[in-house]
Amino acid sequence: MEKEFEDFWKQHQKQLLSKAPQKYTDELKASRSFNTAGDWLLLLFELVPGIYFSQAGYLHNEMLNFFCSVVIIFVCMGVGEMLKPYVTGKRSTGDIVNDIKSYYYNRYKEEGSLEGLL
Fold it and tell me: How many angstroms separate the CA atoms of 41 and 78, rounded?
């Protein structure tokens, strides 16, 4: 039963997320938007270190300098996503998606079939 639902979730995740109840879709949209000061601070936290590294010229090879800057920006983006719930007060998108998944799993257990979920 669990495996059947997991396979169904993997195949139809986008459709299920778009058809989720309004409270989940609104919260998901709000967590992805830049509507608080914390969101903008995190954007600065993600971009400034990479730009600083590229302008500082620690490496004398321009391509290596560029790639290291890109890596720094991606690492800072990952850390920023982990810090986002603490800085902005919003729940992470992963938590919201897990709530949507548990909502559909509970519906699946109640109805006993996958056909009614789509």
Answer: 14
CB contact at 8 A, 47 and 39: no
Tokens 């993600």 found at: 46
Where residue 112 falls (left for φ over 0; alpha for ψ -120 to 50; beta otherwise) is left
Run of H or E including 110? helix 93-111
CB atoms within 10 A of CB 42: 21
Dist. CA 81–CA 52, nearest whole Å: 20
Retrieve residue 110's tokens.
């109640």
Q: Give pLDDT tens digits for 38-69.
A: 999 999 999 999 999 999 888 889 999 999 99
CA distance to 1, 19, 95, per residue, from 109 (Å): 9, 18, 21
Q: With H, G, I as helix, E, B as strand and everything else as coil, classify residue 19.
A: coil
